[in-house]
User: Fold this.
Amino acid sequence: MTTSRLAARDVRMVFGGVVALDRVSIEVRPGRVTGLIGRNGSGKSTLFNCLTGFLKPTSGTIELDGRDITGHAPHDVVRAGIARTFQTPRVDFRTTGRAAVVCGLYPSVKHGFVASLLGLPHARRAERHVQQRADEVVERMKMQAWAASKVSQLSMGRVRTVEVARAIAADARYVLLDEPAAGIGRDELRVLAGEIRALADRGIGVLLVEHNFSLIRMLCDEVTVVDTGSVIFKGTPDEARREERVMSLYLGSAAAGEA
Assistant:
């Protein structure tokens, strides 16, 4: 019986002789939130890109529920059930917040262009489901007051909320969030934290890259720490907080003094 998980196994990524990742391994399991932390330039985003098909590792494997998906194209990775956000949001700033959420649903739509063009009954039913699902996500993420606004008119915190909502709407089995709390206000952060926890409670595996260690401690079941492309620690957030090397390399004296 194959154990469900998204995993990187001994992943090495070299760019022109520079080693960005050196035999990094990590697992994201259904129903759990895994944190990935490290200083800027430590390899976190490179690992995200390997997991989601934007980069093919120099060596090592990416596995989805026991199946090797190393080097698969990003759109195939999405169809396989992996959604992600980006450190710099990739949202069409000309569209509305709600329309951006709707876009997150289309990878799961089964009917084709011709069926939609002809207005066939199954295509109309699927379209109604998409719109209903988008409204549900908008409500859950407390976006109702500004969902009809163009993304270009929103604060960066709300733009990030839109991108997270779009990933949530995709009905993925694994959701990878790259610094989703950056620029988000306190109220938005509270909603975001609740929704990330709700994802795990619904059996979805979450990988969270985040500089806000308070959020890591609040949400994560386990954490992997990377530095200069290598894993230097794996354990719980509280164990990471007590690890002197982790404190000195990443969290710093301010985090070490947190309650």
